[in-house]
Amino acid sequence: MTQAQLQEGANLPALSEEPGVRKWRDYFSFNTDHKVIGIQYLVTTFIFYCIGGVLADLVRTELKTPETDFVSPEVYNSLFTLHATIMIFLWIVPAGAGFANYLIPLMIGAKDMAFPRLNAVAFWMIPPAGLLLISSLLIGDAPDAGWTSYPPLSLVTGQVGEAIWIMSVLLLGTSSILGAINFLVTIWKMRTPGMTFNQMPLFCWAMVATSAITLLSTPVLAGALILLAFDLLAGTTFFNPTGGGDPIVYQHMFWFYSHPAVYIMILPFFGLISEILPVHARKPIFGYQAIAYSSLAISFLGLIVWAHHMFTSGVPGWLRMFFMITTMIIAVPTGIKVFSWVATVWGGKLRLNSAMLFAMGFVGTFVIGGISGIMLAAVPFDIHVHDTYFVVAHLHYVLFGGSVLGIYAGFYHWFPKMTGRMLNEFWGKVHFALTIVGLNLTFLPMHKLGMMGMNRRIAVYDPKFETLNFICTMGSYLLAVSTFPFIINAIWSWMYGPKAGNNPWQALTLEWMTTSPPAIENFDKPPVLATGPYDYGMSHGDDEEVEKVPLSDEREPALAAGPNSALRADPDPKVAAHPEDRK
Amino acid sequence: MNIPSSIWTLLVGIVVTLVSLWYGQNHGLLPAPASDEAELVDGLFNAMLTISTGLFLIVEGALIYSAIRYRRRPGDDSDGPPVFGNIPLEILWTAVPAIIVIGIAIYSFDVYNSIGGFSPHAVHDAPIGEQAVRMPGAAIAATLSDTPPSADPNLNQEKSDAAMQDPATAAVRNADQIPQRRNAPGVGVVSPTIGASPDKEGAPPALTVNVTGLQYAWIFTYPDTGITTGELHVPVGREVQISMTANDVIHAFWVPELRLKQDAIPGRQSEIRFTPKTVGEYKLICAELCGPYHGAMNTQFVIETPEAFEQWQKEQQVASRDAQQLVAMNSADLSPAEFLAPYVSDLGIQPEMLQQIHHTHH
């Protein structure tokens, strides 16, 4: 089957009364529309986020007091293992894929992803994998060797739970590989005629970088997990020292994926922030090319830093120095992004709505995580704080203060496009305030805890740390409370919110040049670029005109007949452009 | 009167610098250092924290200032100025972080070297060819069989063998179950870790202690005196070498006041060297997840005067004979609870915990 045929198959009209409105059933079906799949991803992963959050609060409840008085130590280990696995593999990574699914075809003016069925397959691997993982809790043998699952510990704890964990992560890894192939091919081959790489929205650049890392590193994790499964189930000794195996080899293989994975978890949201800041600051993004190429630099450097997780386990001194230097160099492209974002905001006309607040909160808290990351790269200091709450604080500032705030910013920014309705701003700001306070209350004290001597993954701790732990626990409850305004706001606004219109933020990227929510095939005709994605402030006092230009009805034939014109041909005459005309 | 913005920038810069310098020295985030090495690490951390504080203040300050100063006024629907970039500015903020991280990297390198990270004993000059020849059954051996064996003794192997044959721990290490890695090319049997600091290079450590981590206890043996104990005692001011391994899963030896941490890995030897500086009682913690009772796996680490250390050694030599009689029983026949019973008083392990330990092996 050719790409064009696949594309055609993906664009078969769904039954709907008005543009973009779909039946609720579509969201529970093997639908191949990228927008349905994007929303399936986002809603499913958000549900997993809530589950992972409940687990986190159970962990924090145990840690409210120094003794083990809430759950048994075995259950405690299962709780934090599942919390981490769910948050990483079932929330942040697939949430990035959810935004990419929804936004990439719209942003590049395509009808759908390159491989719509593959896209649906990639999504439908996630719910079974998640349910499989959570089922381990119900059968009473949840994995409890940490999300890193280091052997030999993972080989001597519960066998069933560990096998379930391996199977589940393998499924999720496969899903993200399939997604990455789709994003790369879509961005490479299906941009609207005339859109060069340097006119692409920065989110697409971020997804190119993310997908490259996913394709290069995820198979290595699969290799490590399959070998671990052999050790666990078939009695081989790849990593088991009792048979001469080497547990350090597992760590190398695991981190070869799992360090790049933190960039899989943050790069998409770097991209989202680069989209959101210029729209609400009403200024062009500062240093477009610097931001675009720094994503690629991070993606490349991210592949050669993994051993910084192993400074205390057993790598030679010269290797520690090598990985220290590569890790520190990542601070340079990351710093370029942060300074560019600040410069974008500087001197603009900031609309401080919920999306913008979350985006600026992202920059502000991510900086803390980034700075502590440089400290962790310094070998002598890392030797002191490795495996302590300092690391827990660092990774939560990056993954909560970064990724999760980025996801929220994206939710608030694109909710009008996805649903055609506006979110309530007041409750959005309440959500933001609670989240920022809760997040700093929870994770800031952990820096000191770690440095003073509290190691991670423990259910009992020295009573001298009780006060700070109590603050952390209260912060985590506040974080739990903070999600309620969002959930209620999202559900209520989706049903009853005020109508949004096509372009409520007066943005310039292509996804805003179609209806809200977009029709099945996104655009009536392939859109033609007339402005760059961030040309704010270019035509003083004449904004209205700028908005209309990109969707010029006067398509230039030369532009339309690009190398992939088969994919961009006029809509099939048998398929009406407007769903209401369809029989 | 209108103050020029360059004056404001200068003033803000001075204030940020002063605040950063003050906070970098007065943060109170670390426990008091108890070894020579810890003070070097603290110096590095203070320097990093000074720079970090400055960066933090600049970025957060710019964001908060923008949010207040540049917020959209009601009724103003115009756009901001179309500024797409500024090449000199971008070069500047690429160069400045690059120079900062290069500076931190050089400083870290220096500290790492000073605490012994590059000691030839730690990063052993593993002669790869020779090891390949010695590895039985290795395919590479045939191609390298012309290479004459190196005359240099393999210190790693000797050390490992000596530690494994140490009678005090042979019984508690399941050495027959976990073969120690032989000369793996480039890695060595001893995991490369923190060795002697450059000024003490070549000299043997004043005191050697062998450490075994097992779920959920540390066992220390002093090869010079044959003492076996559950607490680590060292005399102040004399360089100590800790050789460690683990019995079952990975553990990590950590004393926060020493700023030193090293994984104890089953099948490998690893070592750290340090010079205790401050007399006191500290906590020795297992920092690597080793099972449900990981949080309870800690013990006393005592730095004492040489006289007190001598005294302690004398007491232990008596107690240690009893302990050896206990471990001379076939430990494989004992349940973990029975096996650990002699150590309970030393280790501070709760009886309830011991009862639960056997549940952890499914």
Specify the number of helices of chain B.
11
Radius of gyration of chain B: 27 Å
Number of strands of chain A: 0
Name the chain pair with the biggest interface and residue counts per chain: A-B, 101 and 98 residues
The arrangement of helices and strands of chain B along the chain is HHHHHHHEEEEEEEEEEEHHHH
Oligomer: heterodimer
What is the average of the pLDDT values of chain A? 86
Tell me the distance between the termini of chain A.
26 Å
Q: What structural class should be given to the helix and strand makeup of chain B?
A: alpha/beta
Strand content of chain B: 15-25%
Judged by helices, strands and strand pairing, the structural class of chain A is mainly alpha
The largest β sheet of chain B comes out as: 6 strands, mixed
Number of helices of chain A: 20
**What percent of the residues of chain B sit in helical stretches (DSSP H or I)?**
40-55%
Strand order of the largest sheet of chain B: 1-9-6-2-3-4
Contiguous low-pLDDT stretches of chain B (5 residues minimum) are 121-156, 181-189, 327-331, 357-362
Measured by DSSP, the beta-strand proportion of chain A falls in: under 5%
